[in-house]
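OP here, attaching both records as promised.
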Amino acid sequence: MRRIPASMLAIHILFCGVLIAFSPNPAVAADDQSVLQVDREFVQSAAKGDAPTVGRLLDADFTWTDADGKTQSRADVLQSLPSPALGNESGAQVKQRTYGQVGAVMSGREKISVLRLWVRRSSGWRLLVYHEVALRQQASTPAGSNVKNCENPCRTVPFKPKNEAEQAIIASWQALETGVTNHDAAAWSPHIAEEFTMLGSTNDHPLTKADRIATLNLQKQTGFASAPAPLVSAQMFDFGDAVVMTCQHQPYTGKPVHVSRLWIKRNGQWVMSISYQTTMQAAPAKS
């Protein structure tokens, strides 16, 4: 048998490693210039009020949630195009991640942030979710709900999964929310992506995975109850190893919250990568 020179073997191993590194993997967050290109077209068209161009880029299931938590359908938006909170996004900081068939663009300037979730259809990239958050839009509240027991969503949810992926996502979500309730960062962490980003109307800055772990550890020390807000309704949109989840939650006190989440399957486990949460200002508050 012919022996392969050590130098050739090293080159072969290096080449294989390069192929692996650049092979498509839906679980890996990566930049995608095609997403950024179509996203810029949407931003510029929306800022100019160009409804025909915007309409061409919207998915059939598209929703627009503004900084006051008002959510509109595709038909509503095209009938009367809203004004984007960031305008043409001049001077905004933009981050982009692509997970297989889902591309996430996160844009922000000062206290206004926008999430846009693009999905790959046969006709190209289409915008499924547009979600604005105004950081610290309402008065600060204690770090927790002051409720100890979690039935919904920890044990039951008003949502019926359509397939195994959605069932696994609900199980992962219930496990992480149980971790939140118990101030158990070790139980919460495995269900969250390392690049996790969370923004909400009641926060004054975006939160990372490390930030949430620090909060859970602090709540454990102080004993402050922190059962999560019960789920009112939810929709899931499946795209292979990435699933978009839009929800409405009703906190134990205060106004309901509209939430957009992105779940990804990584190493066989569904983990949450992004969560944007906007208080619905026009809705009545629960006392």
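Record two, same layout:
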Amino acid sequence: MSQLLLWSGVRGEWKDCPPDEIAWLDRQTLSDNADLTLHRNPRCPGFRYVHHRWELFSRDTTYRVYLAPDVAGRVSKAADVQRTASHVLPLATASYEPLPVTLEEGSWLVSVGSWVVRLRLDVPARSGTVPAVSGGDAELTTKAVEVGPDGAGQDAVARVRGYFQRNATARLTMAYYYQEYIRGLPAPQTMPMMNVVISLNLSGEGAVSDYKKLLQGFIWSERGHARDLAGFLLANGLLTPADLDEARRVAADNERAGVCEMARQRLQYRPKGSGA
């Protein structure tokens, strides 16, 4: 069984996290109850052991949660963790808990607000065989080996990240389309596709749908996961506030330069209520 350890600044030692309990990153753990903007459990981030792995999840409605590799071996500033984060969990809402991030072996830093916590995940060497499990658990064990959380393939994150690196337009389109999710607004809604098309000067309304279908194929090797797409992209750091800032800058530049107006004319778009 893997072992998760959190560094206790108060004690000056590593604290073991029992797998049968949630290790909450609450007000007490992060700030010794000094920072009243932090939440108490269960309205905060935490670590839980499920399906034979540790994962980071968040129910925090105030702060995004950043996970970054611990390359320096010491607690860094929150800004450094946020800049180098490999995963970002967006704000939670009453009806939306961001998809968790599965922890990989090694040393990590987690930033919540201005606070940073060090952690270390030690994974024992695996034997060459998978222990036999009786009944329905056997199917679950086999599935856990072959696919990641929510049925996503193990290489799904790498495939999407590589695609976004090659296709900046697709990345900015998704960031603009899911901007309310990235901003952590209550009950977030997607942007109207035509608004995205005009703001980013895409070829047509179908362009957004095409990107969504392509990404679903990268992640789940099939379509039909549209409702899970935003959570997957956000939970794995594939869309970040920096991507949204870039997308909104492009949209603002297009509006100032008259590109959006030309797109409206090209697409013969009339806002609702215009009487045209």
